[in-house]
Amino acid sequence: MNISSWFQILLANMNIYFAFILCFLPMHGVVRFAMKKIWFIGSIVIIVYVCACSAVILYTGIPANYMLFPFLPIFFLLYRKTLHTNIYKALTVFLVVISIFCFETLYTDIFAARMHLGVHYTDYAWGSSIFSIFVCAGFLALLWIPASHQMRWLVENYNIFSLWQAGLVWPLIFTAVTVFIIPKNYQSLEEDRYFHIYLLIVTLLLFCMLYVYILLYQSAKSSYEIAALERRNHFLGFQSKQYEALTEYIAASARMRHDFRHQIAAIQKMAENGDLDALKHYLSQYQASMIPPYVSLCENPAVNAVASHYNDSCRNNEINISWALHLPRELPMPEPEYCVMLGNLVENAIDACRTLPKTERKISVISHMPTSSILILIVENSHHSVIRKDKNRIISSKHDSKAIGLVSVQETVEMYHGNLRINYDENHFCVDILLNF
């Protein structure tokens, strides 16, 4: 084996290690294992692959891309195994990194053609190999902060998976275009005119790709902020209604305290006269006129507001609902996210109960934290409807598409590395959620 040639090829193919680093920068918050372990094992896997790949390329002359592309699915499966996130997020990040490092190959080919380091893009030289390392290091330095901050925020917070699926198209397009325009023969770039045109096209394509990714990020963040604002306004509406109800209760209690001395006077007069029947009748009427006691369903104000809203809704629909919300005043997760989850499940339960006879309308809501890092939520309701499923997804009884409420709940559960179980029979439907923090 020609060690010098083998090492040149090995150095040129070390771009995969820089891509490996960039793939994990946005994923620090969703990894299954310690990052030190991932770096160590990943480095060993990549070194073994690059060494073996370089030897095969040296002996057979096979282009590096022909060696790499068959291994990409294997690398993605290994990558996916290390992450605790949705497959579409992992695949999007993986493809975006591939599309970015395709430009490293183009710029290395441009440099090799200009410096007359070979004839074909499969030719290797010390100059082009070292240049490739510098370009990879430059890309990594340039993208380190966006990947570890903006992209990481997107991975950890943006959970509209339909848009993640749609976002897969762009890196695939840019990767296909860059592979298509790789110069097969450097002689085509020897003329200054063609060289400059090609360099301009590659650079414009790179900026176009980065601009598209920035637009997608800004669009996702704007939609996230709008949705978060709508959720906050929604819960502020619940809290406003609860505040009004509490204010009315306080005012009514003050009126009762003010009038109580008159009630005592009337009771005392009937007692002095010995009119027991009149006294009983008066006390019965007075008891019926008393305002019901104010009920607090949860110590957390936001959760209590949402629960009170749906408690009133159940009372208006003559649904028997029981609450056991033993939660702390401060939740280990953003209150809107928990309230959306609770609201979606209880709303679905109410919709299911409305179709039942009044005597059979029952809902049970239980939520507590057995430890500071585990939160449990269980919502069970009676039902008589037919449960329809499509690929393990519940189909909404209101329309023929997937139950949006349950999809939203599932996304929140996945974000907090939890589990969601749905159990049902012909009379009962139960959603059991466990979140880990």
String of helices and strands: HHHHHHHHHHHHEHEEEEHEE
Total of helices: 14
Looking at the chains present, what oligomeric state does this protein adopt?
single chain
Spatial strand sequence of the major β-sheet = 1-2-3-7-6
Instruction: Summarize the amount of helix as a percent range.
Output: 55-70%
Helix/strand-derived class? alpha+beta
Q: What's the story with the biggest beta sheet?
A: 5 strands, mixed
Could you tell me the mean pLDDT?
82
Low-confidence stretches: 399-403
Count of individual beta strands: 7
Question: What percentage of the residues does DSSP assign to strands (E)?
Answer: 5-15%
Q: What's the overall geometry? A: elongated
Straight-line N-to-C gap: 53 Å
Question: Using only CA atoms, what is the Rg?
Answer: 33 Å
Summarize the structure.
65% of the residues lie in helices and 11% in strands. The protein is of the alpha+beta class. Strand 1, helix 13 and strand 2 form a beta-alpha-beta unit.
Molecular structure report:
- The chain has 14 helices and seven strands.
- The chain is an alpha+beta fold and 437 residues long.
- Strands 1-2-3-7-6 form a five-stranded mixed β-sheet, covered by helices on one side.
- Strand 4 and strand 5 form a beta hairpin.
- The protein is elongated and about 120 Å long.
- The relative contact order is 0.07.
